[in-house]
Structure formats: C-alpha cells, structure tokens
C-alpha cells in the first residue's frame, strides 16, 4: 500500500542512471587500481615505477574480450582465506553489537528531511539506536594486544599478504548487503504501508535506486523501539575499525621487513588515523545528525563506501609506507604534526559548536555569546564563531587532517595523496548537496544567511 503522505519521486543527481552504472563499475576498479599501482615490488608511480612489471592487470586491452577479461581478473583475485577472515570480522562485529552493553539514544524525526514541505509529515517518530561502538573497539584492542604479546606480529602479516583477497571479499559483502537492502525496501512495513524511502533513491529507475539507496532506514523490525539499524551498524563499525586494523597490519609488515623497527612516518599515520577513528566512535551518537543517516538512502554507494572504499583506500598511506619506508626529518615531523593539530582543532570545535547549539539551544550556558539568526522554519542559524567564518568550516578541518596523513609519505609519488584529492572532491560535492537541502528548508532566510557568511568552506578562498 502507498504511503500517506507519499514518498517523493526526486530528480536525478550524480549524472542520473549513467552515473549510477559508472559507479558500479568504476568504484571497485579504483580500489583494485590503487592496489595494483602501489605495492611492494610493483612500484608506485612515478618514482618507484618499474614499467616492466606492468601497472594494471590486462583488462580492456581488447574490447571484444572485455567481459571475459574482467571476469577472469575477478576470479584471479578470489582468496577463500581472506573471504573467511573478512566474514568472521563482520559476524564478530554483529555479535558485539548485541552482546556488549550500551545506552540507547534517539535519532532525528524519521523522513522529515530538512523540514522540506515534500517530506515534512511522513512520520512523527524517532528511531532508537544502541551506542556501543567504542566498547567494541576497546574489546578488539585487548584481543590485538593479547595476540601481539603471545604470537608477535606474525598473525597480522596476513592483512598485507592477502590484501587483494580482502578487497574482493569486501566487494562480495558490498553487493550482498546492497542487494538485500534493495529487495527489503519493497517489503511493506508492519502497518502494511510502503516504507519511508530516501528522497534521493526513489526515482523508479532500478539501477539508479539500487546504487543511491531506496530505503532511508533499513531495519529488521519497523518498530521504533528496535535498535538494529543496518545503515547505522555499517556506518561506524566495519569501515572505520577495519581501516585501523589494516593500518596495523601494514605497520606489522614494515616492522617485519625492517627487522624489528617501524619508521616515524608509519607511527604518525597510525597514531593520527587511529585517533580520528576513536574520536568518531567516541562521538558515535553524533553520526545520527549527519546527512548519511538523516537524508541518504542505504544502497550500493554507501555500502561500497563503508565496506570497501573506506577500509581499503583510506589505508593506502600505511600500505605505501610498508612498501617504501620514509624516515621523516624533524622539520617534516613538525609540519605533519602542526597540520594534524590545526585540522583537528577546526574539525572538532566547529562540529562541537553546532552540535551543542542544535542539542541544547541558544540559551544554554555553553552557547553564551554566540550570535545567531532566526528563520521562518523555526530553526536558528549560527552567524558567529566557527559557523560565522564559512558555511562548512568543519570540512576544511577534516581535509587538513587528510593532508596530514599523506604528508608523511613524502613527495616521491602522488599515489598516497589520493585520499586528500578524492576527499576534496567529495567535500565540495557534499557542500553543494547540503546547500541545496538548506535552501529548500530555509528559503529566503538561507539567502540572507549566505550574505552574512559569504564563504563556503575556506574563508577568503572558496
Ligand atoms: N572522513 C570522511 O570520509 C568524511 C567525513 N565527513 C565529516 O562528517 C561531518 C558531518 O558532515 P555533514 O553531515 O556533511 O554536515 P555538517 O555536519 O556540516 O552539517 C550540515 C547541517 O548543519 C546545519 N547547519 C548549517 N549551517 C548551520 C549554522 N550556521 N548553524 C547551525 N546549523 C547549521 C544544517 O542542518 P539543519 O539546519 O537542518 O540542522 C546543515 O544541513 C563533517 O565534519 C565532515 O567533514 C563527511 C563525509 C566523509
Ligand atoms: C562516490 C564515493 C566514493 C562514495 C563513498 C563515500 C564514502 C566513503 C563516505 C561518504 C560519507 C562518509 C562518512 C564517513 C566515512 C566515509 C563515508 C562513508 C565517516 C563515517 C568518517 C568518520 C566521521 O567522523 C563521520 C562519522 C562523521 C563520517 C560520516 C560520513
């Protein structure tokens, strides 16, 4: 049965269905490409490029055999042990979610994305979520330390040696989860009504909706009291925790190869990225107000982002350093530490300022002295402090940290700079999408706000 008021049928984003098909093919190929183009013995262009080894598996040289080449290539990356390890990791996280105690928090009103008139009254309830990701990672840390003390680095070398198999395993999980949630989105809720669908993933075009994500909050039970939400579970656990574990595996490989030492550049990457992940898990509940949870559907794009893209591509710097160790000079270290500290300070204090303002209101003691403007929607907008400098100053802080994680790799190859380059594109695009959402929600008030806060991300630059 259709929903009343109905789920909106949106306009295409991401270049529509051709863009969606491209994502299905190109995103996995980028992850494979980053592996094949940057690994020990096969070079990382241009400085370490040994052309005779070839950079990319022979796919696509002859268009007539493209499909079979691609299939043979995928088969060659299959690794049963890696698949078992990745699957055991997923099952372990799933069990931890239920077994480890945690408090329950409420999200925002479901489906009322940004107060847009199109979606306003689709529900009047908030879903519940369990918060225990930090405890899960603490348990994993205890297990890792215990293994390290009893067996040394040997068991962790698996992560480096089976990296390509782990990529394929993560892609199998990505497609399995994406297909499941797509089919699940058609099953009516407990009232026999169509489920609440994402505003961006309900176009009626099957491939596009599969990629963008049809359902807003796929869950096993539609009851607001149940806490297992597939998107929320996957948002902060497999990707972020997997990223740190892979980094650790790369550091173990370097320790093994260098005969019992790791470089200061590897320490910097390990410490800063682990810190970022622990900080995100510490602030687990804050993810409930991000665009991913409140606005975007859960489909191939996010499943791939969290199960494959994030752990496999974000660990590139550590993988590079395992292959090509860098010993940083004191000046190099200082540059890296300063970039990280400035980035983190902007990122955390800007996000904190907005969270406090939204959560406790303008009159709360922690928000004293902050200037804001009233809007017709009833929601207030900060116009001083961090949010008075640029409309997404928090993105700038996040990007500076991304840069700080690549700088330890030196300048011999551009490949380890993949993360800050891709991240800049993602954040600029994300800012445009958020701007569109806010313009719909705040109307003329948003234009007024933009006149007061002129810069989008970096004051005086963009
Ligand atoms: N590491 C990674 O790969 C990624 C990290 N991120 C990070 O995630 C974090 C969350 O990002 P995201 O969800 O995109 O967006 P933001 O945290 O920037 O939130 C945007 C929302 O904040 C509200 N808002 C905007 N301006 C103001 C203002 N002046 N005063 C008060 N509220 C305002 C609006 O919502 P409303 O008014 O409706 O409340 C707007 O939609 C960021 O720090 C980002 O860097 C994001 C993507 C990838
Ligand atoms: C097209 C393409 C490459 C899509 C993939 C994008 C995803 C990798 C990112 C989209 C939004 C993300 C967020 C985080 C990780 C990357 C993805 C999934 C995030 C979990 C990182 C940690 C942060 O503290 C966060 C929780 C705010 C953040 C949420 C968004």
Automatic annotation (TrEMBL):
Name assigned to this protein: Delta(14)-sterol reductase ERG24
UniProt keywords, alphabetically: Lipid biosynthesis, Lipid metabolism, Membrane, NADP, Oxidoreductase, Steroid biosynthesis, Steroid metabolism, Sterol biosynthesis, Sterol metabolism, Transmembrane, Transmembrane helix
Chief location: membrane
Pathway terms, separated by semicolons: Steroid biosynthesis; zymosterol biosynthesis; zymosterol from lanosterol: step 2/6
UniProt family annotation: Belongs to the ERG4/ERG24 family.
Keyword match Lipid metabolism: yes
Recorded catalytic activity of this chain's protein: 4,4-dimethyl-5alpha-cholesta-8,24-dien-3beta-ol + NADP(+) = 4,4-dimethyl-5alpha-cholesta-8,14,24-trien-3beta-ol + NADPH + H(+)
Cross-referenced InterPro entries: ERG24_DHCR-like, Sterol_reductase_CS
One GO CC term on file: endoplasmic reticulum membrane
EC class: oxidoreductase
Membrane topology: Multi-pass membrane protein
Transmembrane helix in keyword set: yes
GO molecular function annotation: Delta14-sterol reductase activity
EC number: 1.3.1.70
Pfam families tied to this protein: ERG4_ERG24
Cellular localization per UniProt: Membrane
Superkingdom of the organism of origin: Eukaryota
Transmembrane segments: 12-35, 83-100, 132-150, 162-187, 258-278, 298-316, 328-347, 405-428
Gene Ontology biological process: ergosterol biosynthetic process
């Amino acid at each position: 049965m259709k929903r009343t008021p109905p789920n909106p049928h949106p306009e295409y984003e991401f270049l529509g269905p051709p863009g969606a098909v491209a994502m299905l093919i190109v995103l996995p190929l980028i992850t494979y490409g980053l592996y094949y183009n940057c690994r020990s013995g096969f070079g990382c262009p241009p400085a370490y490029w040994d052309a005779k080894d070839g950079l990319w598996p022979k796919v696509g040289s002859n268009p007539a055999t493209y499909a079979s080449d691609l299939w043979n290539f995928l088969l060659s990356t299959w690794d049963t042990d890696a698949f078992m390890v990745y699957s055991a990791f997923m099952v372990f996280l799933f069990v931890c979610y239920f077994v480890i105690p945690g408090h329950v928090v409420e999200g925002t009103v479901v489906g009322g994305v940004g107060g847009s008139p199109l979606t306003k009254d689709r529900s009047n309830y908030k879903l519940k979520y369990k918060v225990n990701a930090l405890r899960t990672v603490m348990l994993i840390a205890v297990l890792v330390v215990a293994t390290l003390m009893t067996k040394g680095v040997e068991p962790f070398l698996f992560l480096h040696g089976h990296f390509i198999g782990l990529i394929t395993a993560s892609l199998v999980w990505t497609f399995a989860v994406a297909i499941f949630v797509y089919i699940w989105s058609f099953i009516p809720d407990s009232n026999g009504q169509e489920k609440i669908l994402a505003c961006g993933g309900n176009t009626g075009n099957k491939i596009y909706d599969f990629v963008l994500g049809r359902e807003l909050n796929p869950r096993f039970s539609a009851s607001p009291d149940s806490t297992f939400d597939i998107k929320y579970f996957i948002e902060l656990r497999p990707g972020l925790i997997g990223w740190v574990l892979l980094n650790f595996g790369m550091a173990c490989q370097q320790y093994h190869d260098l005969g019992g030492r790791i470089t200061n550049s590897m320490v910097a990457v390990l410490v800063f990225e682990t810190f970022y992940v622990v900080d995100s898990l510490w602030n687990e509940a804050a993810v409930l107000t991000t665009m991913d949870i409140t606005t975007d559907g859960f489909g191939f794009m996010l499943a791939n982002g969290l199960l494959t893209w994030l752990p496999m591509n974000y660990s590139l710097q550590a993988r590079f350093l395992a292959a090509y160790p860098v010993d940083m000079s004191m000046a190099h270290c200082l540059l890296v530490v300063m970039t990280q500290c400035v980035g983190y300070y902007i990122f955390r204090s800007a996000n904190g300022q907005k969270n406090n303002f939204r959560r406790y209101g303008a009159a709360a003691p922690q928000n004293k002295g902050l200037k804001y403007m009233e809007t017709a929607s009833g929601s207030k907008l900060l116009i001083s402090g961090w949010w008075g400098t640029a409309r997404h100053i928090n993105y700038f802080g996040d990007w500076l940290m991304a840069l700080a994680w690549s700088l330890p790799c030196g300048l011999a190859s551009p490949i380890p700079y993949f993360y800050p380059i891709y991240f800049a594109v993602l954040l600029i695009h994300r800012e445009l999408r958020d701007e569109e959402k806010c313009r719909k929600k705040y109307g003329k008030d948003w234009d007024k706000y933009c006149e007061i806060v002129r810069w989008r991300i970096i004051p005086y630059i963009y």
